[in-house]
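Run log // design_07
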């Protein structure tokens, strides 16, 4: 790659008539120990900006310097050969690999950051790459193509919001699946909005736990088939769970014919005790109704509900 000394006037030129009569027009040592290139540099065109025979675009042309004579291009090449100052270009494959590694580092580093923060980091990274390329070109004659460095970074920046969206969607789906069976939908919605509230190891909070079991269940299970008992348990506990969720409780576990419901976790509730009390009272009333129905159907004595908290 040619290291041009400047535009068309970057290398000294003299007119042909001056060279023919140099004693009159030029200093005596003008051509001493010099490499002289002879070429055409006509300016007789009515349109100076139009390309003329033996005139070619150079890097400075795009900045308004016009076309340069072919002799000027040859003179810059000769100067580069004599001084060894050609522009060195970095390996395209190595540059692309570096850009790929930068993009990976950016993606990993901004994975858990907000969009505004990742945008700022992407902007600073891009500016740093451009400045580095410019400094290397100006001070070391080393051309480091910014495109292969910037393109992977840009692609990663553009797709990272979609990746974060998909990751958050998977997280919300996990929370919904894990909690929706045993937790009131209102609480599930809050957990989706604040997933950080669900953390490994838990935390200590004030809450209320309600334990409820079916009195006489062992005797009942000895007199009826497993299918009958399963249907009975499903009907019985399903209705009690509905009441618990109505009061925004969380079914913490099943213990055979018993259930444990908690208030105040996983989301804190200031009125957890009142919610548990109201749910317990409503459960006791519902058990009385179910007890009468199931006793008539199964031929058993009345059932009892013993909520404790």
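design_07 sequence
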């Amino acid at each position: 790659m040619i290291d041009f000394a400047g535009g068309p006037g970057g290398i000294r030129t003299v007119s042909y008539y001056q060279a023919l009569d140099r004693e009159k027009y030029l200093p005596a040592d003008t051509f001493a120990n010099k490499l002289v290139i002879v070429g055409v540099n006509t300016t007789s065109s009515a349109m100076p900006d139009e390309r003329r025979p033996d005139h070619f675009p150079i890097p400075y042309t795009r900045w308004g310097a016009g076309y340069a004579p072919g002799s000027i291009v040859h003179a810059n090449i000769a100067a580069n050969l004599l001084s060894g100052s050609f522009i060195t270009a970095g390996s395209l494959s190595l540059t692309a690999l570096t850009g790929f590694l930068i993009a990976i580092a950016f993606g990993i580093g901004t994975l858990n950051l907000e969009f505004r923060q990742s945008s700022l980091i992407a902007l600073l990274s891009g500016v740093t790459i451009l400045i580095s390329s410019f400094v290397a070109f100006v001070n070391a004659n080393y051309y480091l193509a910014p495109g292969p460095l910037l393109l992977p970074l840009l692609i990663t920046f553009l797709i990272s919001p979609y990746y974060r969206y998909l990751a958050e969607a998977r997280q919300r789906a996990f929370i919904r699946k894990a909690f929706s069976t045993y937790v009131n939908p209102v609480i599930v919605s809050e957990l989706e909005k604040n997933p950080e509230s669900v953390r490994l190891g838990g935390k200590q909070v004030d809450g209320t736990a309600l334990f409820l079991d079916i009195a006489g269940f062992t005797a009942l299970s000895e007199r009826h088939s497993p299918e009958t008992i399963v249907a009975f348990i499903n009907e019985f506990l399903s209705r009690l769970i509905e009441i618990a969720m109505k009061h925004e409780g969380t079914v913490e576990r099943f213990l055979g014919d018993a259930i444990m419901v908690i208030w105040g976790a996983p989301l804190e509730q200031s009125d957890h005790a009142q919610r548990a009390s109201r749910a317990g009272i409503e459960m006791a009333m519902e058990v009385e109704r179910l007890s009468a129905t199931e006793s008539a159907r199964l031929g058993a004595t009345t059932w009892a509900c013993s909520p404790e908290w």
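Residues 146-179 form the longest helix (34 residues).
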